[in-house]
Amino acid sequence: MTTVTPEIDHYLEQFTRFEKEGTGDWQAWLRPVRRAAFGRFAEVGFPTIRDEDWRFTNLAPVARTSFRLAGDGDGALDPGALVQYLVPELAGIRLVFVNGRYAPALSRPGPPAGGGSACTLVQAFEEKRDVLEQHLSRYAGDRQDAFAALNLAFFEDGAFVHVGRRQVMEEPIYVVYVSTPAAAPTMTHPRTLIVLEEDSQAVVVEQYVSVSPGGEACLSNVVTEAVVGDNSVLDHYLIEQESMETCNVSTLRVQQGRSSNVASHTLLIGGGLVRNNVHPVLAGAGGECLINGLFMARGRQHMDNFMRVEHASPHCDSRQFYHGILDGRSHGVFSGRIIVHKDAQKTDAKQTNNNLLLSQEAQIDTKPQLEIYADDVKCTHGATIGQVDDNAIFYLRSRGIAEESARAMLLFGFANESLERMKVESIRVHLEALVAQWLLEGKTIWEEGR
């Protein structure tokens, strides 16, 4: 039963206006889907700390903020302002969306080398409607997840990647979602759909940035659905470096076929409040999944990582490695859940969460979990929380290395455990530079506080 609240009333007003403005076959096809999704959002409302999956993240400031959809005047962006954020050596297709809308002047479209297609969802409706209708909104869990429902109700456009049977995309598909400052709180709902048919391969990079930080609060509510067919390989990268005024909620939902291989790599360094959901389902026998992430927070940043790995078929392997570095009064959360269904015999699953606290005020809540309903499995999980090793710093200083440099070396070595799992060199090198810059800024802060 839907409970009418001022928050729901506000979003109902936004949704009514959004529906009236939408025209064309694309909007007409989506209209019943959107209405059903908004109905589900209105029914469940925003999560609270009473919800077990959100117990460490207080969304009250988000719920009481009257976000509006970005208007036509909010999307202006100088191409030069974006360059500093881009992965410099990443060739191939690039799709850029500013405040949820496709920006052709900033993009680099075209047919991908090796076959397949990469375009906007609006374009895919015209050219790949059968694939779109088969997969869009089938996996992301909008019936239970308020943010997934809100995204489905409001998304305007997004990226579509389709790789046909036995095709291999030779270069990464690069998708950039940009938020620009506005005079009032705004919300964007980017959506990405990735479909790999049997025996195919692709690399997809999603990056979320705020250009010219400042302005009012922004809600960046992201949903990515990935369908990976039998014997296919997907490497997915998410880079989040938005402004401190941004609340970023991202959901990556992966459906894996038989003997498929998926790697999810994440770097979180921006955003005032971040919720990172990763949910692969190993639905076919013999599948493999790697979930690899690094989150780095300082000041009053809050980063919540919610991992849910479902083993639904036998002989599947999964690995989770998440590292956190927290400074200032930041708060990190890691909730990792491995679910082994009854028929998923011979499962091999491992989960590890390691964290470094760089200040007395930094906080981490870590909650690894196992739910096992099969009897022939091998599952382990563990978590560590610590500080920089004083003995290691002393050793490096005894070799003539300055204290601040020794500290930075140790922190980079810890972070690099995540980065070195990333196979695409151009992406890894760029992320290494972002991590080094973050540590350099932290070094300055640390020196000033001595």
Give a written overview of the molecule.
The protein is α/β, with parallel strands linked by helices and 450 residues long. It has two domains: 6-284, no CATH class; 389-450, no CATH class. Helix content is 26%, strand content 37%. It has helices at residues 6-21, 25-44, 60-63, 79-83, 121-127, 129-135, 146-154, 390-398, 403-419, 425-448; strands at residues 68-69, 94-98, 101-102, 117-120, 158-163, 173-179, 186-188, 191-196, 201-210, 218-228, 233-241, 246-256, 261-268, 273-282, 288-297, 302-311, 317-326, 331-340, 347-357, 363-372, 377-386. The strands form two sheets. Strands 1, 4, 5, 7, 8, 10, 12, 14, 16, 18 and 20 form an eleven-stranded mixed β-sheet that branches. A ten-stranded mixed β-sheet has the order 3-2-6-9-11-13-15-17-19-21, with helices on one face. The chain is globular. The N and C termini lie far apart (56 Å).
Characteristics:
ten-stranded mixed β-sheet; single chain; 450 residues; alpha/beta; globular; eleven-stranded mixed β-sheet; 10 helices; 21 strands
